[in-house]
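Recap for those who missed Tuesday's class. We walked through two folding examples back to back. For each one, the amino acid string is listed first and its predicted structure tokens come directly after. Nothing is annotated here on purpose, so try labeling regions yourself before you check the end of the notes.
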Amino acid sequence: MNLKKTDTGPASGVNEEECRSEAAKYISAIGELQQKLYAEADQCLLVVLQGMDAAGKDGAIKKVFAEVNPMGCHVIAFKKPTPIEYAHDFLWRIHQNVPPYGMIHVFNRSQYEDIIVPTVEGYISEKVIKKRFGQINDFESMLVENRIQVVKFFLHVSLDDQEERLKERMTNPVKFWKHKDADWEARKKWDDYLDVYESIFEKCNKIEWNIIPSDKNWYKEYLIAKKILETLKEMDPKYPELKTNMK
């Protein structure tokens, strides 16, 4: 995987109106299958979203899960570990947020942050990072073996589009709250971050990564919704049969 040579927008000829129409159908169907998943309560879905700052993770979550019953879905955003989280192994905070049976959990960033940031910033040794690759693979395999379906997305945005989005956070009052000076500092290490992601795709691919071109929100949402719907259909949740002692 060479992210620098991977498209961040839709291919030539992709029709925006058709994608929007299909995405709406997918999103509605996701809501219907989520209801069955919740009622069945025998398996669950974990959606992992990774991407550079301003890749559109928040917007994708809001759009793709618009028809999902909030009782059956929970979004967890992983930020800098707290002192309590630092006092445990790096997967501790991740594992306690894995969905129970019947639920969909969406990770806005994830266990991979504990490889990405330490590698770029250089405050954890290569030896420890190497172990973490294996530990994440084992962790994800364990989840799948216990009826926890995992779908992983990387939202791939271009350097130019990221700049536009970061600038909008400084000019649009509605988005002031999203602005962080640290995002501009991280941008200076763009290539370093891409290199780490490429390493992750190579070493943590027992569960495949879905690379999502994310310069156009409508295309990003279409692709994510399509994959999640396909996954839910494969899981094939069913409403349980009636259980009663009434005569």
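Example two. Treat it independently of the first, because the proteins are unrelated.
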Amino acid sequence: MEWELQSWQSSCAECGREFADREEYYSALYSHDEGFERKDCCISCWGQGQRDAFSFWRARTKKAPEPPRRFVNDDVLIEFFDRLAGATDARRQRLAFIMAVLLLRKRLLRETGRRRNDNKVLWILHCRSLDKEYEIADQGLAAGETAELMQEIGQVLNLSLDGVGDRLCR
């Protein structure tokens, strides 16, 4: 015979307060005609319900994981972009374009204008921290290309950029 039990609840069944990291609490199973019901209670609310419990135990919540660091130091990002900005090969130009968009979103670069050169639109960008102007060609990238380039930048800089490429395409 198999029973379906509720998983751990993140708040007290009695008072509704959210459990804190590493907080002790009680879990209890109550027997009903339909099966078992699980309730989790904070230490202060535990008491009366234990008489009716089929089974109970004391446990501790797990520590919430640290949120992942998404970006490295801004100076490192700007230095990486500065080195890519003068690239002549197509791959590095695409990487420079993606980095430019990231730095624009972080407000580390400011667009001061645009101009046409041959069949490309050039973005004129200013980096206040370096007091330097850049011209970056709009690469007209598709979503798949953007995701691939974001993954490459993430590997080079040891960053987690999951989902960032999706936001760049908007």
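Answers for example two:
Confidence is low (pLDDT under 50) at residues 164-170.
Helices lie at 74-85, 90-105, 143-157, 164-168.
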